[in-house]
Q: What sequence folds into this?
């Protein structure tokens, strides 16, 4: 899980690779159904976690824990209250108009640091 969170931070740290409001977007800014879609070029923090998970795990359907655990770890870093679903708690910070990319990168790296 630590590697997934670190990789997610690397993904959105790239210039123009972070987005708000959707898990992933294509080069035209259009939302994509999957953050692992080859057309994706920007990701929110939760989408970057999914993309990183996909890079490490691929299509291995036996690993059903890593992505939700990584989401939960980040959700616990960004908020201890609010929506129950981790992705929704992450979105509250990621999609806030005042939030900057560096905040999400820091949160991802902090989540990785406190992970086993």
A:
């Amino acid at each position: 899980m630590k590697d997934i969170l670190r990789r997610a931070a690397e993904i959105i740290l790239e210039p123009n690779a972070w987005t708000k409001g959707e898990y992933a977007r294509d080069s035209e800014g259009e939302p994509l159904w999957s953050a692992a879609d080859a057309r994706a070029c920007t990701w929110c923090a939760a989408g970057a976690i999914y993309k990183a998970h996909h890079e490490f795990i691929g299509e291995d359907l036996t690993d059903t824990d890593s992505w939700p655990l990584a989401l939960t770890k980040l959700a616990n870093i960004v908020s201890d209250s609010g929506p129950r679903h981790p992705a929704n708690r992450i979105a509250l910070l990621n999609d806030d108009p005042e939030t900057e990319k560096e905040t999400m990168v820091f949160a991802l790296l902090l989540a990785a640091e406190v992970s086993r």
User: Anything to note?
Assistant: The longest strand covers residues 24-25. Residues 2-113 form one domain. The two ends are 8 Å apart (CA to CA).
